[in-house]
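Give me structure tokens for this 164-residue protein.
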Amino acid sequence: MIRRRITEVLCALLLLFSSLSFGQRTVINDQQDQYFRTAIDLFEKEKYGAAQEMFIKAAERYGAEPTEMKSDARYYAAVCALRLFNNDAEYLVTQFLLDNPESPRVNELRFQMANYLFQIKQYRKASNWYDEVDRASLSQEQRAEYFFKKGYSFFQRNAYDDAS
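Here you go.
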């Protein structure tokens, strides 16, 4: 009876320690994730300058290996550049699209890039970017914005048939 009880306790301890070893994270991973979490918090508070710096640091910490977190960090860094009207915004967006063609964020970033160009009144470039957007995957609200801004871009270029 005592022997059986000792065996049960030892098995329980073995299971406990083995599960703890699998759940451990490295300091490097925690630091990478901390940069990303801090950047998301700043982004949600619309502090795009500080958020962009943190996203860039997070992406650098993920190294050369392509990972989803690195891709997300680069996506958000590009979006921050758009929201801040930075001179390198178009470059960051284009680079993200070239490096991450399979990302689920590609369509959203194309739409945001088109909206950015629309805001700075580069209507020809905006309409080209709107052509790249898969409008079927936009929300109903985004689709309404898409049709209005794309039509307005054509209107500003005197392409009235396309605008309609």
